[in-house]
Specification:
- By secondary structure, this protein is α/β, with parallel strands linked by helices.
- The protein is built from 42 helices and ten strands.
- β6 (251-254) and β7 (257-260) form a beta hairpin.
- Residues 1-39 and 625-629 have low confidence and may be disordered.
Length: 886
Amino acid sequence: MTTSDARARAGRTRATSASVPTQRPAPTTPTTTTPTAAPASVMNPAMVERLVDSLGAGRSVLVVGDAGTGKTQAVARALDRLSTAHDDLTIVHISGTGTHDALPLGALEPLLDDPDEALGDLAATLDALASGIGRRRGDGRLVLRVEDAHHLDDASARALEWLVRQGTVQVVATLRLSWAARAPWAALWKDDVVERLDVGPLTRETAERWLVAELGGPVTADTTHRLWRASGGSAMRLREAVHDALVSEALGLSNGVWVWRGGATSQSRMLDLAELDLQGVSPQGRSALEVCAVVCPIALEVLLDLVPAAAVDELVLAGVVTTTTAPTVTGGTVRVVDLTTPAYAEVARAWIPASRQRELLQRSLDAPVAHGVAAGSLIRSVALAIDLGMDVPAARVQQALEAAFAIHQYDSVVMLATGALASAPEGPLAARLHTLRGNARVMLTQLAEAERDFSRAAELLAPGPFDVETASLLLHVADMATLVAHRRLGDVDRALAVLDGIVRPLQEADPVLPVLRWRDEVEVTRLIRLGYAGRLDTLDAALAALEGGAHPARRVSLAPPTAMALGESGRLHQGFAVCTRFAEIATAHQDHHRWGRGEVLVALFFTLLWSGEIEAVRASLAPTSDDEPITVEWSTVHAAFGLLAIAEGSWSEARTHLATARARFDETDLTGLARYSLTAEATAAAACGDTATARDLLEQAARTAEGSARAMEGDVRVRRLDALGWLRSPDLVTEARAVARWARERGAARVELEALHRWLDATRRTGGLPDPVLVTRVRELGAVCDGERCAALVAHVEAMAAQDTDLARIAERELNRRGLWLPPLGAPVALTAREQEIASLAAGGMTSRAIAQRLVLSTRTVDSHLSRVFAKLGVHSREELANILR
C-alpha cells in the first residue's frame, strides 16, 4: 500500500534590510472586503516582475504553489501591467473551478465560436479552438489565463497542452503544488514548452513588508509574528486575519503604530474559505478529513490504519493535508501527515460527534510524536483532548507546552496549563504547570498573575522532599519570582528578599545533591539581579561565578549583565568574549533555558555597539531560521533596529523603529528599557530638526522609572547628552560634567570617556579651548578602555586639543564609522528632516548610491535632495558640504 508524498516547499528567502517600505495613507476605519477581493498592496512584487518579464517575452508560464500563496494576485497584477503597456493585448480568462469529468472540454467552451457543433468530436474541437483563438487574437497578442488548472477535466487539459505545444496560444496558468508533477503539466515544463514559477509560503519578512504597506504605518514585531503565524504562510489567510483583527479591534493604532491589543477575533471568513476549498472532496475524502481533523499531526502508518490510502492521496492532491519526513527519538525517520491549515480542522470537527472525537484522539495520544511536526497542530490536538475531558499523558502535555513556547504562543501555554491543572494532583506536576504558566504570563506581561503562579508553585514544592528534579524546579521558580519582583518593584533589595523566602525550605532541608550545586545556583540568581541593578561592585564576583559550579544554563543568564558591566567599565573585548562563549552554551542548553539565546544576543548587540563595530551589529540582527526562533521581548527588537539606524546616521529610519518600540512600551515595559528607548528617540528627533518632539521625549524619559534596567543607566545618560547636543542646549556642558563625575565614582570608565568627549566638543563649539586636565584624563581612559569607538573618541579629542581642523574632520569621520554622529558646527539651517539625513550621510563620505541603498530610495531621489541642500547652504561640492556641516 502506497500513498503520495507532498512535494518539498519552495525555499524561503530572507530580507536583511531593516527599512520600512513606502507607506500608503492609514485607513481611518476597517474596510470590509469579500474573500476574493484583491488586497490594495502587492503581496509578492518579485513574482509579479518575473511574470511580466516572461509573459512579455512571449513565454507560457505555470505559476505553481499551495492554496492561498498569492498566485492569482500575482498573475492578475502582471496581466494588468502588460495590458497597460500593450494596447493590442487580449486576455481570455477560463477557470478549472466548477468543471469535472462529466463534461469533457467544458472548461474551454469560452474559446469556441459554436460549442454545439464543436463539442463531441476531438479533431473538430481542436480546429474550433484554434479558429476561435485566432479570431480573438486578430492582429495583436492573446494570452489565455487559466485559473486553478488542476481542476480542469482531463480532456480540457490535454487539448490545452496540444494548443500550447503547437504555439497556437500563450498561456499563464495557476496550479497547485501537489499537481505540478502530474500530466500534462510536468511534461510541458520538462520539455521547456512552458516556464515554471514557484510561489512559496510567505516569509515573516514578506508579511511584514505587506502589512506596513497595506495598513499604511509601522507594525510592531509581535503583531507581525502573530498574524504571520495565523496565516500559516498563506497570503490569502494573512489578508483575512488582518480583516478579522481590524473588525474585532484586536489590532489598533497607538502613536501611529499598529499594535496587537488582544481579544477574540472572528474566524467566519476563514471558515468560509475552507468550506469552499473542500467542496470538491469526495465522500471518502471527507470521511478521511474528519479523522485528520482530530488526530493530525500523526504518523502516516498510524493514519493508514484508520483511513484508506486512496483517501489520503486525494487529500494530498487537494492540498488539504501534507506529508513530511520527521526524525524520531530513536534516530530514524517517519512520514508525518498534517493539515495545511487549522481552518480545515474547524470545519471538519463540526461534523464529528464528541464520542467519535474521543475515540480518534485516544489513538493519536497513544502514538509517539515525531520531532519537527507542526507546533500549531500539536497544540490544537492536545487542547482538544483536554476540552473533551480526556486523560492526556503528561509527556504529551509537556510537548505541546514546549511547542507553544517555541512559536511564541504564550496565550496557548496559559490555556493548556490551565486545562491540565484542572485534573493535576497537587505536588511537583502541578508546580511545574504553575511554573510554565507563570513563564508564559511573564512574556504576556501579566506580571501580577505570574507572581501568583510562582508563589503557588513555591508552596507546592516547599514541603519537599528535594531530589535533583524538585530542587531544580524550586530554583527556577525562585529565579523567575525574583525577576518578576524586580521588574514590578524596581527595587533589587526587595526582590532579593523574595529570593530568600522561596529558597529558605531548601536551605533548611540542606539536601545533599552531588549533581546539583544548589547554593551556587542561588548565588548566581542573586548576582544576576544585582548586575541588572547596575551594581558594578559585584563584577568580580560575577566573573568568578561564571567559572563556578552552577549549571551552565543558569550561568547563561548571568553572562548578559556581566558583559554589559564589562562594557560600562571599558573592558569591551572581555565583554565580547563572554557573549561569544555563552552564546554557544545557550544554544546547547536551550531546552533548559529558552530565554538564554535572546538574553545573550541583546548583550552582544550592546557590546558591539559600544565597541563601534557597526557592521557586526547589523550582522547580529540578521534574521535567523524560522525553525529556530529566539525568544526575546518584541520591543527590544524595535529598539535595537532604531539604535542601529542611529549608529548609521539614518535618523528617519531610527525614529520609525523607536516610535514602534514606544508603542509597545506604552502597553507595557517588560524589559525596563523604555527610558533608554525614549532618550534615543529624542536624539533622532533632534537630529531631524524636530526639536519640540525631542524635548517632549526627553521629558517623558525623565518621568519614566528606571525599573530593573539600571545596568543601562550610564548609556541612558550619554544618549541624553547626544540629544542635548543636537538641540544645542546651553546645559550640555553642565550635564556632561555631572555624567563624567557620576561615571568616575562608580568605575564606569567607558561612560566617563563618552561624557568627557561631549564636554570637550561642546566647549569647542562655543569657541572655548580644551581643558588640558580633561584632555589628560581622556588619554588615561583611552589606555584602559578598548574598542575602536573608544580609540576614535580619544583621536577626536587629541585633534581638538591640537586645534587642527583638518585632523578633527578626519577623526569625526572615523567617529561616524564607529556609530557617533555629531551635530554640525554651524548654525541650524532650514533643511527638511530627509534633507538633513541625506546631507549628514553625504558629509560622512557616503556616495549617492550607498545613501539610496541605506534609505531605500532611488539614486535620482538622493541626488535631487542633495541639489536642494547645496542650494540652501550655498555650496557646490560634498567637500564644501562636509566643511559647513562639520
